[in-house]
Amino acid sequence: MKIAVVILNWNGSALLEQFLPSVIAYSKDATIYVADNASTDNSVTFIKTNYPEVIIIQNSENGGYVKGYNDALPFVKEDIYCLLNSDIEVTPNWLVPILKTFKEQPETAIIQPKILDYKSKEKFEYAGAAGGYIDKYGYPYCRGRIFNTIEVDTNQYQNETIFWASGACLFIRQSTFKALQGFDESYFAHMEEIDLCWRAFNKGYLTKYINNSTVYHVGGATLNASSPKKTYLNFRNSLFTLTKNAKGHIALLIFVRLVLDGIAALKFLIEFKPKHLIAILKAHVSFYKHLPKLLKKRKAISQKTGYYQTKSIVYNYFVLNKKTFIK
Question: 3-state DSSP helix/strand/coil percent for the chain, to nearest 5?
Fold first, then answer.
């Protein structure tokens, strides 16, 4: 079983200079690729000069995370893909338990390692932590991170089947990625991995968290949390994902979700963040424009029950004051 580590890059020469050395040093069992999204900096020259063993796939445009990987991965022939952000530091033997799990558990299709914060290494990192779940209304959360509450890692979360794996470091069988026809390119970036994992769940594939493989993620290196564009993509793509994949009375689910989004918009208004309020409004406009296509995609997916870990993470967090993961 062969593994490919595929790093997506766009004008990230500084990140490659900082983080590629750890990937080279600790990934002896893998073929390493950089999929470059038509960078205009010296990224490609830097790789060719300093790391000639790294295979470069040059995409013709910057299609974001989604199209970038969809365009690049057909050129990767290994059995397992590791989709790795360029702002991640890996650790010794990080690939060993991942490969062991894939070999011993043929039913496992997607894996996420433990993702800790590069800037505060005792804590989980926002984007993935110890594995992702989703609530009834499409709000994602993680073991180790619910909304903006992030836990210290005390080894409290062990290997387990999870619902979604973070796109910051996501392992997936080549056969599974092809069966799912890759990422949905209407997303561009943000929550595309949750959609991928949800579609995998609906097809009966398992996603696992592996505790004894650790990476450190900077997070926000390409689009930080204060960006209205990130707010726009997160709210819009969350609605996309829920509409396509959730089983049940979708009209009622979407209605409740739109009410909750309205409350979030009001919160931004109270916090004097009008750009984020406008981002939510734009997200809803885009959602309505895409709704006919989303409903068409929904018809092509066989939805399964049992996708959510809690009925409403918003209620648990803000009303019941439950700030950490409870199974």
Answer: 40, 25, 35
**Cβ 30 vs Cβ 82: under 8 Å:** yes
Beta bridge partners of 80: 3, 173
In the chain, the domains with their CATH numbers are: 3-217 (3.90.550.10), 228-301 (no CATH)
CA dist 129 to 56, 86, 157, 197, 321, Å? 29, 17, 10, 16, 20
Q: Which of 269, 172, 285 is nearest to 236 (CA)?
A: 285
Name the nearest CA neighbour of 137 among 295, 261, 21, 287: 261
Region of 94 on the Ramachandran plot (φ > 0 left; ψ -120 to 50 alpha; else beta): alpha
Predicted TM-score (pTM) of this structure: 0.95
Digitized pLDDT (tens) for each residue of the chain, 327 residues in all? 999 999 999 999 999 999 999 999 999 989 999 999 999 999 999 999 999 999 999 999 999 999 999 999 999 999 999 999 999 999 999 999 999 999 999 999 999 999 999 999 999 999 999 999 999 999 999 999 999 999 999 999 999 999 999 999 999 999 999 999 999 999 988 899 999 999 999 999 999 999 999 999 998 755 566 789 999 999 999 999 999 999 989 999 999 999 999 999 999 999 999 999 999 999 999 999 999 999 999 999 999 999 988 889 999 999 999 999 987
